[in-house]
Amino acid sequence: MDPAKLPIRQYQQQIVDSVRANAVTVVIGETGSGKTTQISQILEEAGFAEGGMIGVTQPRRVAAVTVARRVAWEKKVELGQEVGYAVRFEDRTCRRTRIKYLTDGTLLRECLDDAQLSQYSVLVLDEAHERSLNTDILFGLLKELVQRREKPLKLVVTSATLDGEKFSKYFMSCPVFHVPGRTFPVDIIHALEDHGQDYLQAAVDTTIDIHCNQSEGDILVFLTGQAEIDKAVKQLNDAVRSLPREACGDLLVLPIYAALPPEMQARVFAPAPSGVRRCIVATNIAETSVTVDGVVYVVDSGVVKQKEYNPRTGMDSLGVTPISRVQATQRAGRAGRTRPGKCFRLYTKKFFEREMPNTTAPEIQRTSLVAAVLYLKSLPLNIDVLGFDYLDAPASESLEDALRQLYVLDAIDVNGGITDKGKAMSLLPLDPSLARALLAARDLKCLEQMMTVASMLSPESSVFMGNKGPEQLAAGTDQQGQQGGRGGGGGPPISEQGRELLKELQKEGLGDHILLLRLYEAWQAAGASIDWCRDLGVDGRSMRFARDIRQQLERIIGPDGSGFESGSGRQRAERQRGSEGGEAGGSREAARRDEQPAAEGRQREGDRERGDRERDGSKRERERERERHSDSRGSKRPRRSGGFCDAATLSSLRMALTIGFANRLARRMPMHNGYRTLGESSTLAQLHPSCARVAADDDGLLPEWMVYHELVSTGRVYLSKVCPVEAQWVQAILPRLEGIDVNRLSGGKTGAKAIAAAEAQAAGLAAAADAEKQRAAAAERRNTDDAVAAARARYLARKAAGGKGR
């Protein structure tokens, strides 16, 4: 559809006038109104980019990249020039950039370098209804910034479904614009019974029914996660193949989720061949920012996979929960983008009206706040995290849990002030525990190895394919269930040589972190070979992603860690150089792709070119690998390299992990292999089956102490990604776990008041104790009847003795 005909273009003058006249404007644009792609262009055309960039935040990196690509195509400019994007570990902008799409987390990190956000004239917080943790933090920071910044900053909050009155009240009674979406109606068809337990099969059956009995138009199916989507894709393909040719036409089934490789994601946006219907099977990533043209039918399972964090136990639980009515409305709206559509809901109307929550709980109320609190403490604003102006305040338990963890990690002091270590940790786009471990590794002379471990823990999914752990793969268990690729195609199992190498890499029995280090070293020694990855059941894309992250980390902190000491100016320079290097190197190919009028088509061509280059490179690599790894019989075999780090370095690395994961320590129970976590509320857990091998003693008992990356609940409680550590290292940490005063840790006004109140209480108690001592002394001096009688007896005794003497 012509962008000029989108509904929001009819309101562009009112929006421009409101942004000029008000510090904050809320725009509620219904699905299909064009708000995500057009508001930035409307403001740029009105001249707002003359005083600084127009920044548009998105909750997900996939959305930031695809929308930036779309806007660059609409404006007929090269991506990375006038229109660009910035996401974690990737920056496609330059000095000419006027419109910048970025994740909300990336904008938060920019605040550390420039608390005034001086390079922006307007910031648009898009998809605000999703209430991501980073967006909620931005609400509070930007609300204060638009009032105090000397150079005016305009804030626009946008969403398809939003409580406009609530947001207006929060943002100083700002104006609210309601922009209608496209006028195509969507028929809502509810199921006759709820499919809460069998929604996957119901979704597959409904999709096949639509394909066989409904008129032309693509289908969008909402499911909860990668494994479920891969299973549905396979079932749909099998079902279509089993049907007679005359029963239905061809169906192109395509998955989309955050962890999908970019070249696979690009297929979703390409038009299907003539006469072929597309079926997109997606997570809730397709609810809002990622728009797939041509969708006429939506199959809504009514559920979403959501993570919940319990601050009392420090445990994450990932479960399937019902969506909210707001989400249901969003999903249905995807069917009416280009023509009248239909939404098939796999739940009853009664369930929708009576049992679904009205809105989704904000992420800030159901996730760990350690990284968010570290960020707030890092800002030069003396923020009191307990008294911060949240739109919806998190539970005090969650904030107190975050403060305790940061204190244990040495990121804040006893009075809640950020330490030098905390400032250094905040510079890295990593989990605070990994950042602390990197600091410790610098001091223990194993920084190179720790950067590798941190990078290998950063991919969104496991580096091993088929949802199996390395010990399971090495043992060759359940090979029929082993999948050879991320798409769930049921590829060949790993080779016998691959299993042998996996066993060798784990023979030290030091857990996941050491295995990941060994795996990366062996992959590098094998020339980053694709065949090597396949032999071991390793995802080559995740390995390349880890390598890219490691290069970024080394650019930020330096191979010797000197970047930790160089301040934010050094960080900014390093990031800029990294960005320019990307534009001059690998990103130039992507930039050339976007010069074509049909961006998506050219994207596919670029993907094919890259695929050809990778296949040619893979072929050459296989030839080199055969020469390196052929044995006396001439067969290829994966081998480890002699360049692995030694035992002393491994010991230092484990000690650094102990320091970095001091907030995630567990101790084995005396007579069995269950572990109890340390902290305010300890939890009994076992090692997850996907963990790497951990060596046991002669009695079969595992090491006494363990650090873990995650504590997860999936029916049972497990420690995930573990590393055994020494008792003497833990003993140095234990004192920091005791006697923590959370009120003092809060800092700011609330913390100061709490300290003053505590000091006053202590002074009052001391005064009361002195008064009690004085009363006791006075009581001892007071003459009681018994004391008088005793004194009289002593006097008469002395008198009688004196009379006898005379």
UniProtKB/TrEMBL annotation:
<dbReference type="Pfam" id="PF00270">
    <property type="entry name" value="DEAD"/>
</dbReference>
<dbReference type="Pfam" id="PF04408">
    <property type="entry name" value="WHD_HA2"/>
</dbReference>
<protein>
    <recommendedName>
        <fullName>RNA helicase</fullName>
        <ecNumber>3.6.4.13</ecNumber>
    </recommendedName>
</protein>
<dbReference type="InterPro" id="IPR027417">
    <property type="entry name" value="P-loop_NTPase"/>
</dbReference>
<feature type="compositionally biased region" description="Basic and acidic residues">
    <location>
        <begin position="589"/>
        <end position="634"/>
    </location>
</feature>
<feature type="region of interest" description="Disordered">
    <location>
        <begin position="467"/>
        <end position="496"/>
    </location>
</feature>
<dbReference type="Pfam" id="PF00271">
    <property type="entry name" value="Helicase_C"/>
</dbReference>
<feature type="compositionally biased region" description="Gly residues">
    <location>
        <begin position="482"/>
        <end position="492"/>
    </location>
</feature>
<feature type="domain" description="Helicase C-terminal">
    <location>
        <begin position="203"/>
        <end position="387"/>
    </location>
</feature>
<keyword id="KW-0507">mRNA processing</keyword>
<dbReference type="InterPro" id="IPR001650">
    <property type="entry name" value="Helicase_C-like"/>
</dbReference>
<keyword id="KW-0067">ATP-binding</keyword>
<keyword id="KW-0547">Nucleotide-binding</keyword>
<dbReference type="InterPro" id="IPR007502">
    <property type="entry name" value="Helicase-assoc_dom"/>
</dbReference>
<dbReference type="GO" id="GO:0003723">
    <property type="term" value="F:RNA binding"/>
</dbReference>
<feature type="region of interest" description="Disordered">
    <location>
        <begin position="556"/>
        <end position="645"/>
    </location>
</feature>
<feature type="domain" description="Helicase ATP-binding">
    <location>
        <begin position="16"/>
        <end position="180"/>
    </location>
</feature>
<dbReference type="GO" id="GO:0016787">
    <property type="term" value="F:hydrolase activity"/>
</dbReference>
<keyword id="KW-0347">Helicase</keyword>
<dbReference type="InterPro" id="IPR014001">
    <property type="entry name" value="Helicase_ATP-bd"/>
</dbReference>
<dbReference type="InterPro" id="IPR011545">
    <property type="entry name" value="DEAD/DEAH_box_helicase_dom"/>
</dbReference>
<keyword id="KW-0378">Hydrolase</keyword>
<dbReference type="GO" id="GO:0005524">
    <property type="term" value="F:ATP binding"/>
</dbReference>
<dbReference type="InterPro" id="IPR002464">
    <property type="entry name" value="DNA/RNA_helicase_DEAH_CS"/>
</dbReference>
<dbReference type="Pfam" id="PF07717">
    <property type="entry name" value="OB_NTP_bind"/>
</dbReference>
<dbReference type="InterPro" id="IPR011709">
    <property type="entry name" value="DEAD-box_helicase_OB_fold"/>
</dbReference>
<feature type="compositionally biased region" description="Basic and acidic residues">
    <location>
        <begin position="571"/>
        <end position="580"/>
    </location>
</feature>
<dbReference type="Pfam" id="PF21010">
    <property type="entry name" value="HA2_C"/>
</dbReference>
<dbReference type="InterPro" id="IPR048333">
    <property type="entry name" value="HA2_WH"/>
</dbReference>
<dbReference type="GO" id="GO:0006397">
    <property type="term" value="P:mRNA processing"/>
</dbReference>
<dbReference type="GO" id="GO:0003724">
    <property type="term" value="F:RNA helicase activity"/>
</dbReference>
